[in-house]
Amino acid sequence: MHIKVKRGWEMPERLATPEAVFLNRRALLGASLGMAAASLAAGPASAAVPGEGTGAVKTADLYPAKRNPAFTLDRAVTPERYSADYNNFYEYGTNKTVTPGSNALKPQPWTIKIDGLVEKPFEIGFEDLVRKMALEERLYRHRCVEAWSMAVPWTGFPLSALVALAKPTGDAKYIQMQTFLDKAMAPGQRAFFYPWPYTEGLTMAEANNDLAFMVTGVYGKPLLNQFGAPLRLAVPWKYGFKSVKSINRITFTAERPKTFWEGLQASEYGFWANVNPAVPHPRWSQASERVLGTDERVPTLIYNGYGAQVADLYKGLEKERLFA
Ligand SMILES: Nc1nc2c(c(=O)[nH]1)N[C@H]1C(S)=C(S)[C@@H](COP(=O)(O)O)O[C@H]1N2
Ligand SMILES: [Mo]
């Protein structure tokens, strides 16, 4: 068996999990080691995709969508059996094995509320929304603040198209996006010390950047539940926690939204959260990342490699703490 010796700067990923601050670390490790043993027993050669058959399957006829060749990768696409079995979705638990629990998520029917500083607030069914949009596939990198990464073929539409549909007024400076709130559908939301519902936000300029993508599918089919069915965000130049899952409310505001992780631990997770290898997390280095499904560690890139598309957004904001 190949045993990799860790160098000092390589923080073991289980110690880098944010929840380790709040939960009994020993109990957590016990639980996740048990999970690891169970998944090894299943055999690494198994090609089965966990969670298969979940998601907003009524829209399956829209997939696969045409790939947009403008969005390319510097690495291989992560095989689905890895990315579909290693997820952050605190509504379904604080370890990476959320797929069995996320069977309880009911992504159809699904309604999205659009409110706040818009010409006229409205609600729209997910299926209506997705059929109004021109879906495309984009290959994106994803970098979690815990120093692991993946590369996946998301399907969706630019967030700017949704902004155009919503018609925000001139006073809107930010867009806030929230996950559903339903303790019966998401047992994790019974944990009272988290500021549910999961909330994220962007400036209007960030939301209108071409890279900001509303995701409805991955690997050429509707999102499986564990990926945040039926609708999630992908902002690949920011740490993964910005990419909020299972969105059912989008609010335009004049004030910067208070985000889930900022509410939990403001000293570690802030609003901007742009990937920056030079700024360590208070508890671990961000200089490199483990590539999901491989033994590889690669250097982390500023803005996760998307500087050419987004660096201009932050001119004049140099004094802000961009990393968090
Ligand atoms: N609602 C919700 N959205 C969420 C999270 C979460 O716990 N709940 N986790 C975030 C984090 S930390 C990451 S890294 C990504 C993980 O996306 P993936 O599971 O599809 O890889 O989702 C983000 N969106
Ligand atoms: Mo993350």
TrEMBL record:
Its cofactor is Mo-molybdopterin. InterPro entries: MsrP, OxRdtase_Mopterin-bd_dom, OxRdtase_Mopterin-bd_sf, TAT_signal. Binds 1 Mo-molybdopterin (Mo-MPT) cofactor per subunit. Residues 1-47 form the signal peptide. GO terms for biological process: protein repair. Keywords: Metal-binding, Molybdenum, Oxidoreductase, Signal. One of its GO terms (molecular function) is molybdopterin cofactor binding. Mo-molybdopterin binds at residues 87, 90-91, 144, 179, 232, 243-245. Predicted to be exported by the Tat system. The position of the signal peptide cleavage has not been experimentally proven. Its EC number is 1.8.5.-. It catalyses: L-methionyl-[protein] + a quinone + H2O = L-methionyl-(R)-S-oxide-[protein] + a quinol; L-methionyl-[protein] + a quinone + H2O = L-methionyl-(S)-S-oxide-[protein] + a quinol. Pfam families: Oxidored_molyb (PF00174). Residues 105-261 form the Oxidoreductase molybdopterin-binding domain. The keyword DNA damage does not apply. It comes from the Bacteria. Part of the MsrPQ system that repairs oxidized periplasmic proteins containing methionine sulfoxide residues (Met-O), using respiratory chain electrons. Thus protects these proteins from oxidative-stress damage caused by reactive species of oxygen and chlorine generated by the host defense mechanisms. MsrPQ is essential for the maintenance of envelope integrity under bleach stress, rescuing a wide series of structurally unrelated periplasmic proteins from methionine oxidation. Heterodimer of a catalytic subunit (MsrP) and a heme-binding subunit (MsrQ). This is Protein-methionine-sulfoxide reductase catalytic subunit MsrP. It comes from Methylobacterium aquaticum. The gene is msrP.
